[in-house]
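Budget justification aside, the reviewers requested a transparent look at the raw inputs and outputs of the sequence design task funded under Objective 1. We therefore reproduce one unedited record. The lines immediately below are the structure tokens for a 154-residue chain.
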């Protein structure tokens, strides 16, 4: 086995493959408060996130994930924690994940510590966009709801 093959085996660990096969909330929501689709232009991975918000927190979450195993694993970690998050918590999770990947930062704190499984992806910058799709789409959907509420009161 070559060094490159060994690196790929580490990247696509059993934990990542297990996460990728167990994505929660894989159904789209009927009449969501917000829906956002994000696509990674480099690899073509695409996700759509639907949210319903009440009292400043996600009460219903749906996701349609068409991504590589790393993007799917990320969707599983984020989806497991999505219901009950505030906008600030969703942003903090996304930003901590981005810092882990792009700035060699620490694994995000709980409830996003499941992203430890994706630490080997740091070395693969071309995979970062796919890993960030669901957190990015969730924050964008949440922000669109906040923007609608601001516009309604103006």
């Amino acid at each position: 086995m070559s060094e490159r093959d060994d690196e790929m085996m580490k990247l696509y660990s059993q934990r990542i493959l297990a996460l990728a096969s167990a994505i929660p909330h894989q159904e789209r929501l009927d009449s969501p408060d917000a829906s956002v689709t994000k696509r990674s232009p480099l690899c073509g991975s695409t996700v759509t996130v639907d949210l319903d918000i009440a009292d400043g927190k996600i009460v219903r979450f749906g996701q349609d994930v068409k991504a590589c195993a790393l993007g799917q694993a990320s969707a599983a970690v984020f989806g497991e924690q999505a219901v009950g998050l505030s906008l600030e918590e969703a942003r903090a999770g996304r930003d901590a994940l981005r810092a882990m990947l792009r700035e060699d930062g620490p694994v995000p704190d709980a409830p996003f510590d499941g992203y430890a499984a994706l630490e080997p992806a740091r070395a693969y910058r071309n995979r970062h966009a796919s890993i960030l799709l669901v957190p990015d789409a969730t924050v964008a959907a949440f922000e669109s709801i906040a923007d609608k509420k601001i516009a309604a009161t103006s």
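The CA atoms of residues 22 and 75 lie 9 Å apart. The chain has five helices and three strands. Computational costs for records of this kind are itemized in the attached budget.
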